[in-house]
Amino acid sequence: MVIADQALATHCLKHISYYRLRAYWYYFEIDPTDGSHLLQGGTTLEQVLSLYDFDRKLRLLINDGIERIEVAARGSWAHYQAMVHGPHGYLDDWHYSNADQFQRNVAQLTDEVERSHDTFIEHYNTKYGDPPFPPVWMVAEVMSFGLLSKFISLLGTRASRQGIARPLGLDERIFTSFLHHLGMVRNVCAHHGRLWNRRLTVTAMLPQNPPELAKSIDAGSPRRIYNTLVIMIYLMRNIAPVSDWGGRVVELLDSHPTGDLSAMGAPQDWRERPVWQSIVAKPDCA
User: Fold this and answer.
1) Predicted confidence (pLDDT) at residue 126 exceeds the cutoff of 90
2) Average pLDDT over every residue of 87-105
3) Which of 91, 141, 165, 221 is the most buried (most CB within 10 A)?
């Protein structure tokens, strides 16, 4: 590797670490499979750092989008449950397809509510206390994203799941699968893991409808982050229609230091696919 600035290299090894950066110069190896670890001629530390910085910005941007999708999912779940089943109907086990799993979900919810120090939870416990669990619109604010996903996917009828998923713009099968997938992606972002070329362990069901979405994904790369971005952009149009999040994704992809997006699962013609074509730059006020 060409090290033009020894001080910069020393600083990066101290504050980023050799092992963490190693994952990014792996891309520049001549043959990553032969174990020699020989780099392509002329590979510079600055190239490696540019790729590292791209991945950091990608995590931050995805985390921003997940926040909005998570908030919308919480809101849709709470609204549906309150309007159809009442404030505490979400605790009726007959709504769910597996009684044992439901009890495990309730046990986890108990722990999460008890750990909460939110003022509204403390107020409920002080003033009411019966039923012991707060109403659905309160627990929706304190339960973890993973537990929210479990509550939604465990609902016993398609109509119930559809009542939560449709306002966000997806069929319930795609929506519940994607929530589970996003929970894993969110954990990678939270732990500052490499995302750009990661082989994702929890895959989402790929949509066949609407056609705009189906034509924009890449079925040949189900474990790469490209498809995640496509579905997120589609969801964000319904959740935050005045946001320029999709435009910022395109801007970031265009800034990729090597211009090679294949490790992300992006097809060569990604920019011509319908979801990307629909992106219009807008002021971000959502």
Assistant:
1) no
2) 94
3) 165
**Tokens describing residue 63:** 């985390």
The whole domain housing 160 covers 51-277
Q: Exposure of 156 by Cβ count < 10 A (0-12 exposed, 13-18 middle, 19+ buried)?
A: middle
Q: For position 45, what pLDDT does the model report?
A: 94
Q: At residue 281, does pLDDT exceed 80? A: no
Please check whether residues 128 and 244 belong to one and the same domain: yes
Distances from the Cα of 28 to the Cα of 6, 40, 41, 101, 161, angstroms: 20, 6, 9, 46, 45
Cα–Cα distance for residue pair 191/184, rounded to 1 Å = 11
d(CA 187, CA 278) in angstroms, rounded, equals 29
Residues of the chain by 3-state class (helix, strand, coil), percent to 5: 65, 0, 35
- Tell me how far apart the alpha carbons of residues 245 and 236 are, in angstroms, rounded to a whole number: 8
